[in-house]
């Protein structure tokens, strides 16, 4: 069967005749061809631009990403960046030459004083990485993670910083990292979306839902949000009174009618639509299956501290993430909120780290024991770090330093990258800017960040804008 | 992902079809623009090797190009070089040239390397139509068909044609009667009569308005962080009315950009000027005011670019445009037009984005508002500009501070009247009551709780020092309520949010009452204290909540609500008992609120208003910021003129009450201009660059005026000499009616944009648009009258081969309908669609999965200030464009069907085809309910129900194979529901509409069948 299709690309993209075997459209066809078509968009847009995305520079180290996103800006001084100097000079002014010209949020008009933490740190594992005692489970897997202490961003407030961390720019409406990855690498899950988002954590501070939007990329690359308990997805369940068999019969009739229409007007979009309805039908079974933990061993459930179904916690989302990783989801992003500790950073960090410590460590161990860690890039971090200066009993947003870590997927474990000055205010060595983070993550996925582009409003856009360097020192 | 698909056939692109000489604009510019201009283009900052290739002079100066001699041209040597050091584009860049592209460049240089001005910037002149006897559209198209050896397809059959026309004009299908009548008489005259009937109808205006709303990113929320509601509904109404009344596009432009500056400004033009306020705004604590203000400038300039200029102006924020002649200076000069606009960088949460304009029902009410506001302006002028004797002021300052010390010494509590019986000009105030001399009279229906509330009047928030809350009331002995209650609301960010835990209720009456058991968003049965029996009726009573009874609260109390179950109650003064010192502080808080009334204000300073005067006075003069000194002067003036101050406060109250029944809307207003600097790389912290003054981009010349305003900008946009506006507009129209743009990039007519397929046609249409006095309906009539419009959308195999992207328009385009068209059509087929008599200003809330907003609340995002309360009754079935548009959580079905979030301006929707769409169309209760009503209609009408379904939905009869397939389904469903009658009942229970047929099995069977009809590709597609 031969399809012709048009270009969705602005400019003069060549016109393409696209031949594909009939079987590719039937259910049960080869998994790759099926999913590339079926997770897809209008055939036209599917072809024209995704063809541009043959971008692999080398064999990719990571095939998928699990991004544990700590929304609000977790404090590095209570987690991964121990600064004795701050304890020593607690309450004393921080040297002015450090802070001059740096944009601050809440502390815009205030006196800037050192703020030492009373949280203890421990050298852990064979690598001797220095990790806060608030993270006892992560301390145990210190040799598996690469800590980065010099996270830098351009944005000092949540909304634009989330946008920047996710899309590489503070202007809303650009594609997020997960969307770029989905666009660049396509989907290998045959009955799940390629980019899934889940959320947990205390209520309160909003972050923009546009953080997982596909922006100008085709809409199917938008992150699909699965709820962390209850029905996982909007409109997933058939209406009350429509049994699974009723749904099947209905869709069979729909397919018949659509095929008759196709006979009259020969429109390839009809075939795509038929396939999308089939995929939807499969998702009605596969997504609930994803959220059924009863098949997990007791040992595994204990590792995460969970029962036989999702309970809305971060650990529960972590187990969901592992199950999605096994089923081929490309990019899984787990947001956990509540890290914005302008006051009582000690108490706040104690609660939040308790929320995420076990789940995070369990996820990495679980992936490792299943052999999945090697090709899964795990990322942990927030939209920015926090100030070494006090804001009352808390810390303000900070662009110049912050800690995150990565594991698996071609990242060297048991190392710390980047070094901050004795006050932890900014990078003394090896800054790790958001653009560098994006470039490096894409590199691990086998994608050259300068080549992953999409033409929109006359410009070739990239996740890294016009910046970004691959940080080779952290590559395994 | 395409590795296993190995066979690609590249058909010659249109460029190569004609054997004409190389054209710079058509053939060369795209290659250079895509691959070279980034480093060798317009942006001098980024220019490498001091070489520019975007002008003839630049390219030939040092021999990069030697016209006529490719062999001597360095450019040619470089692009063919194998040496990695010499090669261009550089081997490590993202760019590379194909063999064909290189050959084009060689040929072009051989032919003399002639440069042309970019098509979109060329002066607009109307080209002659190739055939004056036929429609110009057809004449231009026919010429290219001939040139490319392409035959057009047949004319569409009458049914398809009428459906197309109806959808394109109104976003809805025709009725089956209309199709039948047109099928019988498909004459041009009959076609015209449909055109004329539909053009200018409300449905037409709604559909055309929808596309404009995408373009200007209209929404009901501010778009950032907590994404709070804003008031823009009247602007939407304005847009729809303008299309209905066929307002000339130049006027439409002027009113939106500068409706507040027009000499004959009116409610309408002021509402239109709300356009400038549709920007995204932030209210996040910690945002830097200046940075946010520069971001707002970006919003204004980018919108101008997308909506009118078809130019990506946003690119020039950090540097000169790489591809188009827009400099960074141009960007900031355009931004400077918006400098006098009143807008805040960082709004206070809960602020409805003042300034607002109030639209009254009657002329008298408008006049009264005008009179009150005139008096307020006068008073303010007298009060706040009176001369100040510094010595007197300083003495007064000392006096205040001394009085504060005295107040600290006073022992014992005293009353602070927080909310007087006659509520003042509060920040938020809601509920129904009649204002009488004695207080607020509420005559409440029994069986429900009636409640009104108020928050943040011009005084301090309640601090920890209050010792009791109190209120006064008089109960009518003839009509006693069942209970009464006082609520203290701990408003997060001073707004009554959805969060019921913040509502603390204290009530008087029987200890248990069913109404108090009901959980409401504003009533938590767990946060409730019984205070005693209902107080004595017939006299003024004072009720108190002593500190000992206070419920535990997080956040500061910001709002008080008065509740009663039935009865008639007159509510009097309310407040709290506090120390004399606190009272003193409260009394001195009002100046700031009074002076900055209706002015948006940076959140940080606004938060401090309640203590700002006293803290300002305590600062050493040298340490005071501008606002501190300003406020001291304001307070001093007020202290010297207490009568005027009291009168002003009273006027605020009056105007506030007068506005209770008026409709507020966002509006543009001006004040003294802020300053815009040309920033270096967009960095707001570096304002060392020169100040930018309002000016149009230099490439378009200069405005002939010393201090041009937004109105001058608007006039320039629609001036005859502006080469872009008309082209950009007709190109969008073409896309709308022919399935793709003449230039596909509707939002970018610049160097990187798509080269127009029919440049002369585009120019002809643009010229026609201007000469018709910007008559939108005239253009739409023209576009839909052409023969080409009426062609079938089914390509023949030859056409499909030769022109698969339909650049030649030898057939019509086909694509999926928009989210709105699909829902509206389903409701129409079901007989549910609620057509609007008068265009609503309020948005409605259709069915939405509970978890969608609720979970966003619970976890962390989104809807802090709003709960999704599904609209009841007929309003639930309004056309989709009236859906509450929350930028961060647009309705999930609409999101699935590619509706834009409207965070940024969008000129076209990307149409995708995804499983999420299938799930929404199959399972969204809105479509299931529509299927139920459609089934009932089909069963109740005369004739075969299958025929009826097809007629209602597709306006045609089914053929025998279709009928057979559906009959089989009906049989299967009948069996299923007969065996499982509870499933039939469940299915019929979905949706608010009560229509249910007696025969449940039959109704369910046909509901399931109708549901399939509403998922047919044919139903979802414009053909």
Q: What does this molecule look like?
A:
The complex is a heterodimer of chains A (476) and B (1023). Chain A has 476 residues and is α/β, with parallel strands linked by helices. Chain A has two domains: 2-53 and 234-283, no CATH class; 64-232 and 291-474, Alkaline Phosphatase, subunit A (3-Layer(aba) Sandwich). Chain A is 32% helix and 18% strand. Chain A is built from 13 helices and 20 strands. In chain A, strand 16 (419-420) and strand 17 form a beta hairpin. In chain A, helix 8 (244-265) runs antiparallel to helix 9 and helix 11 (314-326) packs parallel to helix 12. Chain A starts with a strand and ends in a 14-residue tail after the last strand. The model of chain A is unreliable at 1-54 (pLDDT under 50). The two termini of chain B are 31 Å apart. Among the domains of chain B are: 14-116, no CATH class; 119-155 and 723-812, no CATH class; 248-356 and 673-717, no CATH class; 361-386 and 641-661; 412-587, Jelly Rolls (Sandwich), CATH 2.60.120; 924-1022, no CATH class. In chain B, a hairpin with a 4-residue loop joins strand 5 (434-435) and strand 6. Chain B contains 40 helices and 17 strands. With 1023 residues, chain B is of the alpha+beta class. At the A-B interface, strand 2, helix 1, helix 2, helix 8 and helix 9 of A face strand 1, helix 15, strand 16, helix 32 and helix 33 of B.
């Amino acid at each position: 069967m031969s399809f012709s299709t048009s270009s969705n690309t602005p400019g003069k993209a060549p016109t393409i005749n696209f031949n594909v075997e009939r079987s590719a459209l039937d259910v049960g066809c080869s998994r790759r061809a099926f999913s590339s078509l079926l997770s897809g968009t209008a055939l036209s847009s599917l072809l024209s631009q995704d063809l541009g995305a043959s971008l692999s520079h080398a064999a990719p180290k990571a095939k998928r990403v699990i991004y544990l996103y700590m929304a609000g800006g977790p404090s590095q001084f209570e987690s991964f960046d121990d600064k004795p100097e701050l304890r020593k000079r607690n309450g004393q002014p921080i040297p002015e030459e450090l802070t001059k010209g740096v944009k601050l949020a809440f502390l815009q008009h205030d006196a800037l004083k050192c703020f030492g933490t009373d949280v203890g740190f421990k050298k852990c594992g064979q690598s001797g990485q220095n990790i806060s005692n608030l993270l006892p489970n992560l301390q145990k897997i210190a040799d598996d993670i690469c800590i980065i202490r010099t996270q830098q961003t351009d944005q000092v407030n949540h909304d634009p910083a989330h946008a920047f961390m996710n899309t590489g720019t503070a202007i809303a409406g650009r594609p997020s990292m997960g969307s770029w990855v989905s666009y660049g690498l396509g989907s290998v899950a045959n009955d799940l979306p390629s980019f899934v988002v889940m959320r947990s954590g205390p209520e309160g501070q909003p972050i923009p839902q546009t953080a997982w939007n596909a922006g100008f990329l085709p809409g199917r690359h938008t992150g699909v949000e699965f709820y962390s308990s209850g029905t996982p997805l909007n409109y997933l369940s058939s209406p009350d009174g429509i049994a699974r068999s009723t749904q099947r019969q209905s869709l069979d009739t729909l397919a018949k009618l659509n095929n008759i229409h196709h006979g009259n007007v020969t429109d390839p979009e009809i075939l795509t639509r038929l396939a999308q309805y089939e995929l939807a039908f499969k998702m009605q079974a596969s997504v609930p299956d994803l959220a059924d933990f009863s098949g997990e061993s007791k040992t595994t459930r204990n590792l995460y501290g969970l029962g036989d179904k999702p309970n809305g916690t971060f650990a529960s989302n972590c187990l969901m993430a592992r199950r999605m990783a096994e089923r081929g989801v490309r990019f899984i992003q787990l947001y956990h909120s509540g890290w914005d500790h302008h006051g009582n950073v000690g108490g706040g960090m104690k609660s939040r780290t308790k929320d995420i410590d076990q789940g995070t460590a369990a996820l990495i161990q679980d992936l490792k024991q299943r052999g999945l860690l090697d090709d899964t890039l795990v990322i942990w971090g927030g939209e920015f770090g926090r100030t070494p200066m006090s804001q009352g009993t808390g810390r303000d947003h900070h662009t110049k330093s912050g800690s995150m870590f990565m594991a698996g997927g071609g990242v060297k474990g048991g190392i710390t990258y980047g070094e901050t000055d004795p006050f932890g205010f900014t990078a003394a060595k090896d800054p790790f800017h958001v653009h560098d983070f994006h470039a490096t993550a894409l590199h691990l996925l086998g994608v050259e960040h300068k080549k992953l582009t999409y033409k929109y409003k006359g410009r070739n856009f990239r996740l890294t804008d016009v910046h970004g360097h691959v940080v080779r020192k952290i590559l395994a | 992902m395409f590795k296993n698909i190995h066979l690609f056939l590249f058909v010659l692109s249109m460029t190569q079809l004609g054997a004409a000489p190389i054209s710079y604009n058509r053939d060369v510019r795209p290659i250079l623009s895509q691959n070279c201009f980034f480093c060798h283009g317009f942006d001098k900052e980024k220019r490498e090797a001091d070489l520019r290739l975007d002008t003839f002079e630049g390219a030939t100066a040092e021999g990069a190009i030697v016209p006529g001699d490719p062999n001597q041209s360095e450019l040619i040597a470089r692009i063919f070089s194998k040496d990695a050091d010499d090669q261009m584009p550089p081997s490590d860049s993202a760019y590379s040239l194909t063999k064909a592209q290189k050959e084009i460049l060689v040929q072009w240089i051989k032919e003399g390397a002639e440069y042309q001005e970019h098509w979109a910037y060329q002066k607009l002149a109307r080209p002659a139509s190739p055939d004056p006897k036929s429609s110009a559209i057809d004449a231009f198209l026919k010429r290219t068909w001939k040139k490319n050896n392409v035959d057009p397809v047949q004319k569409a059959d009458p049914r398809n044609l009428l459906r197309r026309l109806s959808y394109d004009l109104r976003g809805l299908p025709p009725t089956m009667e209309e199709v039948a009548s047109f099928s019988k008489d498909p004459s041009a005259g009959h076609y015209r009569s449909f055109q004329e009937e539909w053009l200018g109808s409300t449905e037409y205006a709604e559909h055309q308005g929808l596309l404009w709303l995408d373009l200007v990113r209209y929404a009901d929320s501010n778009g950032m962080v907590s994404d709070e509601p804003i008031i823009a509904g009247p602007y939407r109404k304005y847009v729809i009315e303008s299309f209905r009344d066929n307002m000339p596009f130049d006027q439409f432009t002027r009113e939106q950009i500068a409706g507040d500056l027009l000499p004959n400004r009116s409610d309408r033009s002021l509402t239109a000027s709300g356009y400038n306020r549709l920007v995204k705004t932030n209210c996040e604590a910690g945002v830097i005011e200046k940075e946010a203000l520069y971001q707002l400038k970006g919003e204004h300039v980018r919108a101008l670019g997308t909506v009118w200029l078809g130019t990506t102006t946003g690119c020039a924020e950090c540097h000169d445009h790489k591809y188009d002649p827009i400099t960074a200076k141009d960007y900031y000069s355009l931004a400077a037009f918006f400098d006098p606009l009143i807008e805040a960088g960082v709004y206070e949460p809960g602020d409805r984005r003042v300034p607002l304009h109030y639209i009254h029902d009657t002329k008298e009410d408008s006049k009264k508002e005008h009179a009150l506001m005139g008096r307020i302006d006068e008073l303010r002028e007298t009060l706040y500009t009176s001369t100040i004797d510094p010595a007197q002021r300083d003495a007064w300052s000392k006096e205040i501070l001394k009085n504060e010390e005295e107040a600290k010494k006073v022992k014992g509590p005293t009353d602070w009247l927080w909310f007087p019986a006659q509520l003042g000009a509060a920040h938020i105030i809601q509920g129904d009551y009649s204002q009488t001399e004695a207080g607020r009279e509420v005559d409440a229906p029994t069986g429900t709780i009636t409640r009104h509330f108020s928050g943040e009047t011009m005084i301090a928030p309640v601090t920890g020092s209050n010792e009791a809350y109190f209120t006064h009331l008089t109960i009518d002995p003839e009509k006693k309520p069942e209970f009464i209650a006082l609520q203290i609301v701990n408003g997060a960010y001073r707004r009554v949010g959805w969060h019921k835990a913040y509502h603390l209720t204290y009530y008087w009456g029987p200890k248990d009452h069913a109404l108090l058991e009901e959980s409401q968003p504003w009533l938590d049965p767990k946060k409730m204290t019984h205070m005693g029996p209902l107080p004595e009726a017939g006299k003024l009573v004072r009720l108190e909540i002593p500190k000992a009874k206070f419920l535990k609260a997080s956040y500061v109390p910001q709002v008080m609500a008065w509740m009663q179950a039935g009865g008639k109650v007159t509510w009097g003064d309310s407040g709290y008992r506090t120390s004399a010192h606190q009272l003193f502080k409260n009394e001195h808080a009002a100046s700031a609120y009074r002076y900055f009334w209706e002015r948006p204000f940076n959140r940080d300073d606004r938060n401090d208003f309640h203590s700002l005067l006293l803290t300002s006075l305590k600062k050493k003069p040298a340490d005071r910021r501008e606002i501190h000194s300003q406020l001291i002067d304001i307070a001093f003036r007020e202290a010297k003129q207490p009568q005027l101050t009291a009168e002003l406060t009273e006027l605020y109250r009056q105007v506030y009450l007068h506005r209770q029944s008026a409709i507020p809307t966002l509006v543009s207003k001006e004040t003294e201009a802020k300053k815009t600097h040309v920033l270096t790389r967009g960095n707001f912290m570096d304002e060392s660059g020169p100040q930018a003054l309002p000016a149009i981009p230099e490439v378009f010349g200069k405005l002939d005026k010393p201090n041009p305003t937004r109105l001058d900008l608007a006039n320039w946009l629609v001036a005859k000499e502006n080469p872009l506006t008309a082209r950009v507009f007709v190109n969008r129209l073409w896309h709308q009616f022919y399935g793709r743009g003449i230039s596909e990039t509707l939002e970018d007519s610049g160097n990187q944009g798509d080269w127009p397929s029919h440049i002369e046609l585009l120019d002809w249409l643009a010229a026609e648009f201007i000469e018709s006095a910007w008559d939108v309906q005239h253009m739409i009539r023209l576009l839909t009258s052409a023969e080409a419009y009426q062609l079938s959308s089914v390509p023949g195999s030859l056409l499909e081969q030769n022109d698969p992207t339909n650049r030649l328009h030898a057939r019509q385009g086909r694509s999926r309908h928009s989210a709105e068209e699909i829902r509206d059509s389903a409701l129409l087929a079901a007989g549910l669609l609620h057509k609007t008599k008068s265009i609503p200003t309020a948005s409605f809330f259709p069915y939405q999965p509970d978890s969608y907003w609720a979970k966003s609340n619970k976890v962390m995002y989104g809807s802090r200030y709003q709960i999704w309360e599904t609209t009841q009754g007929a309003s639930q079935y309004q056309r989709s464009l009236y859906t509450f548009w929350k930028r961060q959580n647009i309705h999930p079905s609409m999101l699935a069907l590619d509706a834009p979030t409207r965070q940024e301006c969008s000129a076209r929707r990307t149409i995708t085809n995804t499983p999420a769409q299938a799930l929404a169309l199959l399972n969204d209760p809105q479509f299931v309910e529509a299927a139920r009503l459609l089934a009932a209609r089909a069963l109740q009408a005369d004739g075969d129900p299958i025929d009826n379904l097809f007629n209602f939905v597709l306006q045609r009869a089914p053929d025998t194979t279709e009928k057979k397939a559906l009959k089989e389904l009906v049989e299967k469903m009948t069996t299923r529901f007969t065996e499982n009658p509870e499933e039939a009942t469940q299915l019929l229970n979905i949706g608010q509409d009560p229509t249910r047929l007696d025969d449940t099995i039959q109704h369910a069977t046909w509901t399931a069948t109708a549901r399939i009809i509403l998922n047919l590709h044919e139903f979802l597609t414009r053909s």
